[in-house]
Amino acid sequence: MVMTVNMHEAKTQFSKLAKLVESGEQVFVARNGKVIMKMVPLQPGERTEPRDFSVIRGTMGYISDEEWDRLDQEFLDSIEYGEFDE
């Protein structure tokens, strides 16, 4: 079953909605009649902690905006465009 609730109802009925999601239901939350999010159960093995990228700190040097622009252009220049046969 898919359920759509407004923001106020989602805030006041959060525990109830969480139980529905735990049981496999999807809950859409709307603000001013427009759906802005979907509550879904986690998939088995899905990450619940954010990745820690701090371990790579200091492994890359600083890249200036000009260098990024040059690399972007180099990448764009490497793309070969052609006709698609249908």
Q: Give the biggest beta sheet.
A: 3 strands, mixed
As a whole number of angstroms, the C-alpha radius of gyration is: 23 Å
> If helices are DSSP runs of H or I spanning 4 or more residues, what is the number of helices?
3
- The CATH topology of the domain at 2-39 corresponds to YefM-like fold
Can you say what the CATH homologous superfamily of the domain at 2-39 is?
A: YefM-like domain
**How many beta-strand elements?**
3
Strand content: 15-25%
Query: Kindly state the mean pLDDT as a whole number?
Result: 89
Structure description:
By secondary structure, the chain is an alpha+beta fold. The chain has a domain at 2-39: YefM-like domain (YefM-like fold). It contains three helices and three strands; from the N terminus they run βααββα. Strands 1-2-3 form a three-stranded mixed β-sheet.
Any chance you could write out the topology, listing elements then pairs?
Layout lengths: L1 E5 H6 L1 H9 L3 E6 L2 E6 L25 H14 L8
Parallel strand pairs: 1-2
Antiparallel strand pairs: 2-3
Compact summary:
It contains three helices and three strands, in the order βααββα. The protein is of the alpha+beta class. It has a domain at 2-39: YefM-like domain (YefM-like fold), CATH 3.40.1620.10.
